[in-house]
Every structure is written in structure tokens, then in C-alpha cells.
Design goal:
Blueprint (H helix, E strand, L loop, with lengths): L2 H5 L4 H5 L4 H7 L31 E4 L5 E5 L2 E5 L26 H4 L8 E3 L5 H4 L2 H8 L2 E4 L1 H9 L7 E3 L5 E4 L2 E8 L35 E8 L3 E5 L7 H4 L6 E5 L8 H8 L5 E5 L18 H11 L4 E2 L7 E2 L2
Parallel strand pairs: 3-4, 4-5, 5-6, 10-11, 11-12, 12-13
Antiparallel strand pairs: 1-2, 1-14, 2-3, 7-8, 8-9, 9-10
Bound molecules: zinc ion.
């Protein structure tokens, strides 16, 4: 950790481990197998997509932070859609202001989000979930998340009829695609390696969340979307994961959050566990005090992630998108 992190253990920079990710990169290498090496684990039959660029029929658009739009055919899936990006000071030396009110600005959302079949909530923090009630109402989408996520969303006005409550282990069949749900972990920060705004909200309905501190983690999930039984996208929302949960997965695309300096060999273990994905799309690397309609401003996590992926998995293509850009594998 940097001295900055010691002084301000709950700043987002410390949370995401920007500085120590460099050290992670240095120790991550050496064990990479070729991308086409024999797979391991329980899903060994999964074959990698080998089609020409642009032929998968899948489009991935980055909406900033960990917000992604994944489209194929007539289906649209949104991941942690947060486009309002109200100022919190998260990446400033002073750190986040806990009393920052939750606000939603349709003028920042509507130009970019008009339809969705599913919204996948990876965890409950403000920068992942605070626009979900508005977007769920606007699109009518079904919202996947834990009981805690749903209780907080219900307290913000989302009707229970739109919830699909999951806990990890689900393998859900939809029209032409599947969604697998995995238990995951949040990144940790500070000398005691703490999850920011920790906790859960099971059982009875909590009071209506008012500030960023009211949207607690509520457990963290990872998702794998498989399109047409042939193209796999794994989504991780924050720099940590449960190795045993993901063992044997062979995603074509892995959406990977920057950071992870407090997690042992974060990127190296992840690349090995996933059997070296064809593509890594970096996520959660932009300072969200700045708006989505301007180029992304790196808080410091992008290059360490790029370096760590290159060291651990040299054949993986690292595809950095800017705000609102689309990747068509
Ligand atoms: Zn978070």
C-alpha cells in the first residue's frame, strides 16, 4: 500500500490497489500456457471461439466504470449500469464523501440506454446499482442479484416482479443464451484489507437508501453469459474472485476490473484459472467524477492491469475501450 492508502484507507485508490498492482504484475508470470492448450476443470469440453473478427454476432459496449451493454440478436443485457456518475470524490486524495446523496439523472442515461432484457447486478455499491431502479423501470428488464441487492432496490422503488434472486450456482436458460451465476468477492483496501461499505440487507426491507454509504456490498457475484452455446463472456465487477468458483471456465472474453493489489497474484491466478482467455476487456479503470461523454480518465489502474495480463497470459488480447466504444469479436 502507498502512504496515501495508509492515511486514507477507504479511498477508492486504496480500494482498488492501484500502486501495488505493479508488484502483482511482477510476480504473475512464468506459468502461462498457450491459449489453445488443453483445458482443465469440469467444463473441459468448452471450446474457444475461433471465428473471424466481428463474426460472433456479439457486441460489447463500455458505458464507463463497470457498466457494459452486451447485445446479440434481439437481446440486450446490461451489467451494473451506472451512467449518472454523480461526483463523490472517490479518487481524490480526500477520498469519498460518505454523505454524498444518491442521485439519478435521466438526461445522462436516456441517450445511451433504451432497452434491456436483463440487468445483471454484480454487487450493491453506488457505482454499480444506483441507476438500476430507473433503468429497470425504463426498460422493464429482469434484474438478477442477491436478496440484499433486491431489498435495497425494492426500497428504491423497483417492484419485486422484476427480480430474479440468485446466490451463485444458478445456470439459467434463456432464449438462445444462458447465464451462469458464481459467488465472488469484492476487492479489499487498507492495512486491514476491508471491503468498503460492507454488509448485507437480507430479510425485512431496509430504509430507503439515501447516500452512497447506504448501498452496501450485499455480496458480490460473477456472471458468465454463453451465447448460442458457443461464445462465452465472463464478467467480474471488482478486483477479486473465488478461484474454485471459476475453475474450469474457458471464457472467450473476460471483463476484468483493474486493481487487486491486496489480493495475492490477482491477475496471474485469474488468467490461469480461466485457462487464458482470448480477450480481456479492462473495466472499472476510469475516474467516474468525470462524465461519460468525455474520454475516460485513468485513475491509475489501467497500465498495471495491462502489464499483469501480458505477463501472465501473453497470447491474450487486451482490448481497451474508451467510453461508449464497442468491441465486436
Ligand atoms: Zn464496489
Amino acid at each position: 500500500m502507498t502512504s496515501n492508502d495508509r492515511r486514507l484507507p477507504l479511498t477508492r485508490r486504496g480500494l482498488l490497489g492501484a500502486s501495488t498492482a505493479v508488484a502483482t504484475a511482477a510476480i504473475a508470470g512464468g506459468a502461462a500456457r498457450p491459449a489453445n492448450a488443453a483445458p482443465t476443470g469440469s467444463r473441459a469440453a468448452a471450446r474457444r471461439w475461433t471465428g473471424a473478427a466481428g463474426s460472433s454476432g456479439v457486441r460489447l459496449r463500455w458505458l464507463g466504470n463497470n457498466a457494459w451493454e452486451i447485445t446479440f440478436g434481439t437481446t440486450t443485457i446490461l451489467i451494473d449500469p451506472w451512467l449518472t456518475r454523480f461526483k463523490t470524490g472517490t479518487y481524490t486524495p480526500e477520498g469519498i464523501r460518505d454523505d454524498t446523496p444518491l442521485t439519478v439523472d435521466p438526461a445522462k442515461i436516456d441517450p445511451h440506454v433504451s432497452r434491456a432484457n436483463l440487468i445483471l447486478v454484480c454487487h450493491g455499491h453506488y457505482d454499480h446499482m444506483s441507476d438500476v431502479p430507473y433503468i429497470a423501470a425504463r426498460t422493464g428488464a429482469t434484474v438478477l442479484g442477491t436478496e440484499s441487492h433486491h431489498n435495497m432496490l425494492r426500497a428504491l422503488g423497483t417492484p419485486p416482479s422484476q427480480f430474479c434472486t440468485v446466490r451463485g450456482g444458478e445456470y439459467l436458460q434463456y432464449d438462445g443464451y444462458t447465464v451462469e451465476v458464481f459467488q465472488s468477492l469484492h476487492s479489499m483496501t487498507g492495512p486491514s484489507k476491508q471491503v468498503p461499505y460492507p454488509g448485507t440487507r437480507p430479510g425485512t426491507l431496509p430504509p430507503r437508501p439515501q447516500t452512497v454509504a447506504d448501498l452496501v456490498e450485499g455480496e458480490t457475484l460473477a456472471y458468465q453469459i454463453t451465447v448460442g452455446e458457443r461464445f462465452r463472456i465472463l464478467v467480474l465487477s471488482t478486483a477479486n474472485f473465488v478461484e474454485r468458483e471459476l475453475a474450469g471456465l474457458r471464457p472467450d472474453v473476460a471483463i476484468v476490473a483493474a486493481g487487486g493489489g491486496t489480493v495475492h497474484d490477482y491477475v496471474g491466478r485469474l488468467m490461469r484459472t480461466l485457462d487464458y482467455p482470448t480477450w480481456v476487456l479492462p473495466s472499472h479503470w476510469d475516474d467516474f467524477d468525470y462524465p461519460l461523454d468525455q474520454p475516460a480518465i485513468d485513475w491509475g489502474g489501467l497500465q498495471p492491469l495491462r502489464d499483469a495480463v501480458k505477463t501472465a497470459s501473453p497470447n491474450t488480447k487486451f482490448v481497451k475501450l474508451d467510453h461508449l466504444q464497442t468491441f465486436t469479436p
